[in-house]
Amino acid sequence: MKNTGLLFFPAFDWSLGDTHPEREERLLYTQEQLFEEGVMDLPQIKHYAPGLASLKDVQRTQGIFPTPESHDLDAHLIAAGSSLVLGEAWAKKEIHNGFALVRPPGHHSGATVLGNRGFCTLNNEAILINHLRTFHGIKKVAIVDTDVHHGDGTQDIFYHDPNVLFVSIHQDGRTLYPGSGFIYEKGGPNAWETTLDIPLPPGTGDEDLHHVLENWVLPRIYDFQPDLIINSAGQDNHFTDPLASMSVTARGYGRITELLNPDLAVLEGGYSIEGALPYVNLAIVLALAGEDYQGVIEPQKPRHPHSGSNAFRGFLKELKEQYRRAKPDWNIRSDSFLPAGKWVYIPHSVYYDTEGFQEGRKDWIRQCNHCGGTVLIESQHTVTGNTFALVRIPFAACEQCTQAGYDLWEHLIGRKTSVLLQDQQNNKVELWHLDKGVTHF
Prior knowledge:
Residues 71-274 form the Histone deacetylase domain. This is Histone deacetylase domain-containing protein. The protein is α/β, with parallel strands linked by helices and 441 residues long. It has ten helices and 18 strands. An eight-stranded parallel beta sheet has the order 2-1-4-10-9-6-7-8, with helices on both faces. Helix 1 (25-36) crosses helix 8 (277-288). The two termini are 40 Å apart.
């Protein structure tokens, strides 16, 4: 029998406010529903206890600035650590698949972290993926984000990684936070076309979303041939969600899960606490466990029952053509402090909506024909003026990119408020801070 692992972490001690849509009841109603329906008594269901991620687990993937101690990370470390618990169970073949029902969510948290944005501080899926790559030899990973909001943080972390395929299916960013996830966002100079953003019109329902999966996403995953498929299982595409405008049903989510057949799923958004989440989560769990989910029917009826229109088919055909036509337009810079090689320069900013400030970013990527390339991120908190840097040496880095990373690390120490070295190739993480010196994780 193929076992399905489940793990609940409601984060009782973490709150953005008693009436905030991201609150502990998101999981409590689901737990109650699963127990009432007898799902937890199914012989193939294995229940796991939460775990705790280490700061090295986190900083292998994300730069927490100015230091991890400057943030309240307790609940976030348990949410990330709980994902690692199921990841370990999957890697050791204790389970065939698993679903980490955890909060806080994580997919808006990117490569650099200066605060909370989109309810997210740590990126649970990204931390999980790099843990499995480090300790279990996973080479290629596909992430499919089915949250209604673009998974901009996850995309940011893996945008330059040729061995991670990131797919985000979401409501068009022109109509919804975070205002990104457009068809021309296709990956960095060493990872072109390993990012696939599919922005959909408000009102998209089951049949149209399943059509997208069957006719675009699944063929792309098949071509990529990943060792691991992760579902960022956001549930705010549901027709009752208060923060979005889509029309997917609980059974529609069951079918999404059945089609994707993910190895691991991690809960993201979804804020219709009573009208959707218990039913959507039930359908997802039943689909993972190989059980019939067709009897899962929520009490309300969809706002927009129409689906499967010829107009949507035409829209999707044009969207695919736009993706095909989008070409890279790299800005090559050769600033004096950069090591030898061609470096692509990508400036942008990140808005932290929870705390209301901007992060200014300058991203530099070393073009390389042999690996994912060294990545340098220069960051500035636009309110405090503090400056930070992240230097990433990728998994399977070539000798030249490894040396470039260490040259940058030595050059930047003393020139920023703090500097993080992520040597993913050798599982080495070091943080220099102007008041604390170097910390080895």
